[in-house]
Design brief:
Number of strands: 26
Number of helices: 5
Low-confidence stretches: 1-8, 19-26, 195-205
Helix content: under 10%
Shape: globular
Mean pLDDT: 89
Structural class: mainly beta
């Protein structure tokens, strides 16, 4: 976590939209700026879990440190000028930039976001690095995090075409609404694991050429229920792929051209030939999501579930027990000017990833156990810039307490998790607050269990060391108080206690100035 390196990759895709934006600017844009100073102290030279997780890579240094965060943003205008009230602009544009500078025992600069976007009707084109998540949940800030993309790591530089908000289809009386996206992204150079099949075993070695990898993402979500109905249902899927290393891994044995490879990636189609084991190309994963919502007079209630897929067990419902299940309550009568206590949102989640179709009695699949976020060929699995892209409850090796059993090829050493999570936001005596609390039991991976890992066609032997089941408790509380002249002051505190992570405590003091 020594800063964000591929700044060039994040900035180049924005040039097209910035140029387009400059020629259509017909009036003075409403650009918002802010500057924030932070003073941070942590124990054990560790930044606590919820102080560093789901922050889009905006992470302070451990120990005593200081940080400055600068932001500039222009969002879409809601409507046309006052001579046409109530009509949204057919075309609009925006941009965002955020950077963080840390100084303590070391120093670094992190590029958190740098993007431009343009909207025409219901469609949006966006380029650069942005703070995006993927998945259906009740609140992306309070949640423990989506399985696919949680906002834990910095955004992957990308070019995205999307319908970002639900668009009501002009058929069936407005009963259906849809949204979705299609993305091509640039991951940069990555370490891959090349394979050699020798007899009944597969041996691996690190390919140090670090070939360039790409990112593919698409999603489609449907809302059933008219906009003014109290009851609505939601359903959809998302699909993500790391790809682009096939020639480096297999050489001339891999026969597809780049264009053909891309089509296989988009379709999720398997490929295999002599010297290339049959499987889907790249590292593919995602979730199938369902939800329902009821709008009471005072409270809006939402139930949701994300069902995970990684290497193929879901096609036979073999890992159907695994998922993120949630309930959110939104207070429709929340008063942001309240002088006493007022709650805004409550969120409860149950995260379960222990099954993975990896038990001897699980429904057999050719792909074996799911081994979430780890991958044969991508040494660092489902991570970017050293941080997990998905739910942070699945633990990479460098975040775990030393001494646990590990499988040498695994980047994530704990992906069998059972967790309860709660989040609350609101206002108390002129302070806006948000808090999260999580308790988890952690079981390592199937590769470090007594059952052994079975990903791939060949059953791996039981690891020489077995992961010891350990509990973990993590707490977070932040508060912000608006002051005069655009200033606000705040704090954040976090605690980790358990046997998965190093015990730690952190305190952050913040002073922010908003300019308009």
């Amino acid at each position: 976590m020594n800063g964000i390196q591929p700044v060039k990759n994040a900035l180049l895709p924005t040039l097209l939209l910035l140029t387009l934006s400059s020629v259509v600017q017909a009036q003075k844009p409403e650009i918002k700026y802010s500057l924030e100073a932070q003073a941070i102290g942590t124990t054990n030279q560790v930044v606590p879990f919820w102080m560093r997780s789901n922050q889009f890579g905006s992470i302070p240094l451990s120990g005593m440190s200081g940080s400055f965060i600068g932001k500039a943003e222009k969002d879409y205008s809601a409507y046309l000028p006052s001579d046409s009230p109530g009509r949204k602009k057919l075309f609009d544009w925006g941009f965002g930039f955020e950077a963080r500078a840390n100084a303590g025992k070391g120093a670094n600069v992190q590029l958190i976001s740098a993007y431009a976007k343009a909207r025409m009707g219901v469609f949006q084109l966006k380029a650069g690095r942005s703070k995006d998540v993927m998945g259906l949940n009740g609140d992306s800030v309070l949640s423990s995090g989506n399985f696919s993309v949680s906002g834990n790591a910095p955004g992957i530089p990308k070019l995205e075409l999307s319908i970002p908000n639900y668009y009501t289809l002009p058929v069936f009386g407005g009963l259906f609404a849809v949204k979705g996206n299609f993305v091509h992204g640039w991951i940069g150079r990555t370490r891959i694991l090349d394979s050699i099949i020798a007899g009944p075993t597969i041996k691996y070695y690190i390919n140090d050429t670090k070939p360039v990898s790409y990112f593919h993402q698409k999603s489609l979500y449907v809302r059933l229920g008219k906009a003014d109905w109290r009851f609505k249902m939601y359903g959809g899927f998302n699909h993500q792929v790391f790809w682009g290393n096939e020639q480096a891994a297999y050489g001339d044995n891999f026969k597809l051209s780049p264009a053909e490879t891309f089509l296989y990636v988009v379709r999720g189609k398997s490929y295999g030939t002599k010297g290339v084991p049959t499987s889907k190309i790249g590292n593919q994963l995602g979730s199938i999501d369902l939800g329902m919502e009821y709008d009471f007079n005072d409270i809006k209630v939402m139930l949701y579930r994300q069902t995970f897929y990684d290497v193929g067990a879901l096609s036979k419902l073999a890992n159907i027990k695994d998922g993120l299940n949630g309930l959110s309550l939104e207070n429709k009568r929340f008063n942001p000017e309240s002088s006493g206590f007022a709650w805004k949102k409550i969120l409860l989640e149950f995260f379960y990833s222990k099954d993975q179709a990896g038990y001897p009695w699980s429904t057999p699949t050719k792909s074996g156990d799911e081994d979430y976020y780890n991958n044969f060929y991508y040494k660092n699995g489902w991570s970017y810039q050293g941080m997990g892209i998905g739910n942070p409850l699945i633990t990479p090796r460098h975040d775990a307490r030393a001494g646990q059993a590990v499988k040498p090829a695994d980047y994530f050493i704990n992906n069998r998790v059972v967790a309860l999570h709660a989040g609350l936001s609101g206002r108390l005596y002129h302070w806006d607050f948000m808090t999260k609390v999580t308790y988890s039991d952690n079981y390592g991976t199937f590769g470090t269990s007594k059952y052994g890992n079975s990903t791939g066609a060949i059953k791996s032997p039981v690891n020489s060391e077995i992961f010891e089941t350990v509990p973990q408790f993590s707490f977070y509380l932040e508060g912000t108080k608006p002051l005069k002249n655009g200033y606000s002051a705040g704090f954040a505190t976090a605690v980790d206690q358990g046997k998965l992570l190093n015990n730690s405590f952190g305190l952050m003091l913040k002073l922010k100035k908003d300019f308009q």
